[in-house]
């Protein structure tokens, strides 16, 4: 019965979003989304998410200096930097390499760089999380990924790249929205929204159980916590937060 309801509601949602499905069929939606709509949407939703997640992020990134080298240097790579919302949480003098598959965040990114001049910005790479070949193996102390694993094409491949670029003893920090409990109404509505949401928001998947990918990756230590960050009028509420050590 539940599955039938999901199918019917998905169809209703698809009808409402029919213009976007048509633009996608014509090959127009994807470039428009990546260049115009998604950067605009991300900037708006990030403002809300940052307010609700700020305390969580402050606590998450509090021990970043623990992974500095003996010299005190801390090299950090961020996957899916977007507008640079995390810059404010990085320690002074941190050397940052920014990567994103979408190069259309320049205006917001520059704004956050200007606000966070306590950092050294080393490189800006247009790259997918699954392919960081421009970054040498074992070259960074910390990798950060927030609200990105929901949209990468291959989660396991991205985590393999994270492990490759990290030096031994380095850490991977994450904050990601995930699937709700299968018996909950939240999960029911995530299932309903899933196909249209993924199309409209550049491949964002609502139902990934990312904690399983993290548990299965070859980290020596994993600190993971399930939390709730409510975003009004969205099916994004359950999150996982923490860090893993290579």
Automatic annotation (TrEMBL):
Segments spanning the bilayer are 7-29
Query: GO: which molecular function terms?
Result: S-adenosylmethionine-dependent methyltransferase activity
The protein's UniProt keywords, in alphabetical order, are: Membrane, Transmembrane, Transmembrane helix
Gene3D superfamilies noted in UniProt: Vaccinia Virus protein VP39
Q: Which residues form the Methyltransferase type domain?
A: 77-174
The reply to whether DNA damage figures as a keyword in the UniProt entry is no
Q: What top-level branch of life does the organism fall under? A: Eukaryota
Q: Pfam families per the record?
A: Methyltransf_11
Database matches in PANTHER family: METHYLTRANSFERASE LIKE 7A (PTHR45036:SF1), METHYLTRANSFERASE LIKE 7B (PTHR45036)
Q: What is this protein called?
A: MET7A protein
Q: Which organism is it from?
A: Bucco capensis (collared puffbird)
């Amino acid at each position: 019965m539940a599955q039938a309801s999901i199918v019917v509601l998905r169809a209703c949602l698809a009808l409402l979003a029919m213009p976007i499905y048509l633009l996608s069929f014509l090959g127009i939606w994807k470039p428009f989304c990546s260049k115009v709509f998604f950067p605009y949407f991300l900037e708006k939703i990030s403002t809300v998410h940052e307010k609700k997640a700020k305390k969580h992020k402050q606590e998450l990134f509090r021990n970043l200096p623990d992974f500095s080298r003996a010299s005190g240097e801390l090299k950090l790579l961020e996957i899916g930097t977007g507008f640079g919302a995390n810059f404010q949480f990085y320690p002074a003098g941190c050397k940052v390499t920014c990567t994103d598959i979408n190069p259309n965040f320049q205006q917001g990114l520059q704004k956050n760089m200007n606000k966070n001049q306590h950092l050294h910005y080393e490189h800006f790479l247009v790259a997918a999380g699954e392919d960081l070949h421009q970054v040498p193996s074992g070259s960074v102390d910390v990798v950060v990924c927030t609200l990105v694993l929901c949209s990468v094409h291959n989660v396991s491949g991205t985590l393999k790249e994270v492990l490759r670029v990290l030096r031994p003893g380095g850490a991977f920090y994450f904050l990601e929205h995930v699937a709700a409990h299968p018996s909950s109404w939240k999960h029911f509505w995530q299932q309903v929204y899933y196909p249209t949401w993924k199309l409209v928001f550049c491949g964002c998947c609502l139902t990934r159980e990312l904690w399983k990918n993290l548990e299965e990756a070859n980290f020596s230590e994993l600190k993971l916590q399930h939390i709730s960050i409510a975003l009004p009028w969205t099916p994004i509420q359950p999150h996982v937060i923490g860090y893993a050590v290579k």
